[in-house]
Specification:
Layout: E1 18-23, E2 26-34, E3 44-52, H1 57-65, H2 67-73, E4 77-85, E5 88-95, E6 104-117, E7 120-129, E8 142-143, E9 147-155, E10 161-169, H3 177-205
Parallel strand pairs: 6-8
Antiparallel strand pairs: 1-2, 2-3, 3-10, 4-5, 5-6, 6-7, 7-9, 9-10
């Protein structure tokens, strides 16, 4: 399927990192942007334009927000749950990293809203890391203290969805360049492919 394209006709300072068409029903384009710090951080923020055929936007949003179901289809989830602290819902998420790297964990808040933009129905999910005393850091796991993500999903005009995602985190520690490159070039398309499969399975199980 056809992926997204940038509407302003320019990518600078964004550069296309990968364009993946896993099959006729999934497409993904990833643009990384170096984070400019006084020191060379080697960190990137990413924006992803993708298409998921035969996955309506409401279904995509439901699958993305369903933490229990995600533990079934996301192979990198080690631990994932939501708890309420001081009246606010907080999500704890531990991510498996390849040996010999330490796993990372996240403590964050998120919100999902359905918006009407010029007659277009768009599902928007926002997530951001927070510091919660009730969720202290664990030995042997590196806490990701800077994380933010924005996800927008809308109909592709047929039976599928168009997906836009902005993503940044600072994983801490020494992350080898091969892992950064893999995350951009393979990890994101693989995640969308797994999510597409999850959408199909979700509709069967609910």
């Amino acid at each position: 399927g056809a992926g997204f394209s940038l509407t302003n006709g320019t990518r600078s300072p964004w550069e296309m990192c990968t364009e993946a068409a896993c099959n006729t029903s999934l497409s993904c384009v990833t643009f990384p942007l170096p984070i400019l710090f006084p020191q060379q951080s080697g960190l990137y923020e990413y924006k992803v334009f993708g298409g998921l055929a035969d996955c309506p936007p409401e279904l995509c949003a439901d699958v993305y927000m369903d933490l229990d179901f995600r533990k079934q289809w996301d192979q990198y989830v080690k631990e994932l749950y939501e708890k309420t602290y001081d009246g606010e819902k907080i999500i704890y998420w531990e991510v498996k990293y390849p040996f010999p790297l330490s796993n990372r964990d996240y403590v964050y808040i998120r919100e999902c809203r359905v918006m009407d933009v010029d007659g277009r129905k768009i599902w928007v999910v926002l997530a951001q890391s927070v510091s919660v005393p009730q969720c202290p850091e664990k030995p042997g796991i590196i806490r990701v203290k800077s994380y933010k993500q924005s996800l927008a999903i809308e109909s592709d005009g047929k039976t599928g969805s168009k997906v836009y995602m902005y993503y940044f985190d600072n994983p801490g520690g020494m992350i080898p360049s091969w892992l950064v490159n893999w995350a951009a070039k393979s990890g994101v398309p693989t995640f969308l492919k797994d999510m597409q499969k999850a959408c199909h399975n979700y509709s069967k199980s609910t």
